[in-house]
Amino acid sequence: MGVYNVHERLITAKESKVGALIDTLACGEDDRLWPGRLWEEMEFDRPLGVGAVGGHGPVRYTVAAYVPGTWVRFTFTGPRGFHGFHEFTVLPVDAERTALRHTIAMRITGLARITWPLAFRSAHDAVLEDCLDLAELACTGTIARKARWSPYVRLLRAVERLSLRLAPAGT
Predict the structure, then answer these.
(1) CATH of span 2-164
(2) How deeply is 70 buried, as exposed, middle or buried, from its count of CB atoms within 10 A (0-12, 13-18, 19+)?
(3) Residues 70-79: contacts with CB within 8 Å, 24+ apart?
(4) Residue 152: φ, ψ to 5°
(5) 37: helix, coil or strand?
(6) pLDDT per residue over 112-167, tens digit each?
(7) How are beta strands 82-92 and 98-108 bridged, if at all?
(8) Which of 110, 133, 149, 156 is the most exposed place for a label (fewest CB within 10 A)?
(9) pTM for the full model?
(10) Which of 90, 162, 152 is nearest to 121 (CA)?
(11) Closest to 133 (Cα-Cα) out of 122, 144, 124, 125
(12) Using the 8-state DSSP alphabet, how is residue 26 labeled?
């Protein structure tokens, strides 16, 4: 089964300002793009660059390509059954506006044919809209239309919190 999922926000800011956000990915408190306060943090075994290995939560990947301030592509290594990539791209529209796009292109196999539509897709859509809210806020100081989590995403998050509380220590 093929998955092609795109999230994009038009931001009233120069390409360089929007592109600088990509370069902060996985920089802990200095990350101005990934919503690590709301979701699992994006982390790598080294600074953002080709060959860095990491991910967020159960989603694992390697940095396959990186053009600072312009584009970063991650190749999935997990969960099992995710075969493909996701990427952030900065696309200049004109002198004052820039599109920030996130794309997933992957083939899913095995159990992922169930987990992607049941849980991952909705959570992914929510986290990406939160990313784009952060990008817009960082570049303009405001968010024109703040993303809202669906009732289903709120349910998934509640189940996740409950499972973490019930998990034995050290797991």
Answers:
(1) 3.30.530.20
(2) middle
(3) 70/19, 70/22, 71/22, 72/22, 72/25, 72/48, 76/106, 77/53, 79/112, 79/115
(4) -65, -40
(5) coil
(6) 999 999 999 999 999 999 999 999 999 999 999 999 999 999 999 999 888 878 87
(7) antiparallel
(8) 110
(9) 0.93
(10) 152
(11) 144
(12) T
H, E, C per residue of 138-160: HHHCCCCCCCCCCHHHHHHHHHH
Token digits of residue 65: 């390509």
User: 71: helix, coil or strand?
Assistant: strand
Q: Map out the domains of the chain as residue ranges.
A: 2-164
Q: Name residue 7's beta-bridge partners.
A: 102
d(CA 50, CA 133): 26
Report yes or no: 64 and 80 within 8 Å, Cβ to Cβ. Answer: no
**What is the length of the chain?**
171
Whole-angstrom distance, CA of residue 49 vs CA of residue 45: 10
Residues 100 and 9 sit within 8 Å (Cβ to Cβ): yes
Q: Alpha helices, DSSP H only, in the chain?
A: 15-22, 112-115, 121-140, 151-166
